[in-house]
Design a protein that fits this description.
Order of helices and strands: EEHHHHHH
Strand content: under 5%
Bound molecules: zinc ion
Length: about 120
């Protein structure tokens, strides 16, 4: 075990080169203290972006979240975007599954109490 080392560009602590490569030249401690702003050229990888579009969402709304996932990923074998995208897909599937039942329930309530208004709800 004689891995190449370098120094943290913030605190000058000796760190492994692979730590520096993964954390923009910072040690883990200094890296955590950096504002986690995605670089201008960061994009959600195309296959993941396509999956987000396929469920009717705009991938540009998830750039910060994707960057956060990537930053918090410690293993190279992990796909840091998979969890984000599969969570969005799960949420979309639940929405589509339950929406008709929720609408039907709302309609049934409307038929049962046709005179109900937001004002009458305030008195309950
Ligand atoms: Zn440091």
């Amino acid at each position: 075990m004689n891995e190449p080392k370098t120094r943290c560009k913030q605190c000058n602590r000796s760190i492994l080169q692979r730590t520096a490569d993964k954390r923009e030249g910072f040690c883990a401690i200094c890296h955590c203290r950096q504002p986690n702003i995605p670089p201008d050229d960061f994009e959600i990888p195309a296959p993941h972006a396509e999956r987000i579009k396929a469920i009717g969402l705009d991938p540009t709304n998830y750039v910060q979240k994707a960057w956060d996932e990537k930053s918090q990923s410690f293993s190279d074998s992990d796909d840091p975007f998979e969890k984000l995208v599969s969570n969005l897909e799960d949420r979309a599937a639940r929405y589509l599954k339950w929406l008709p039942e929720v609408r039907e329930f709302a309609n049934a309530c409307g038929r049962k109490n046709p005179n109900i208004t937001p004002e009458s709800c305030d008195k309950i």
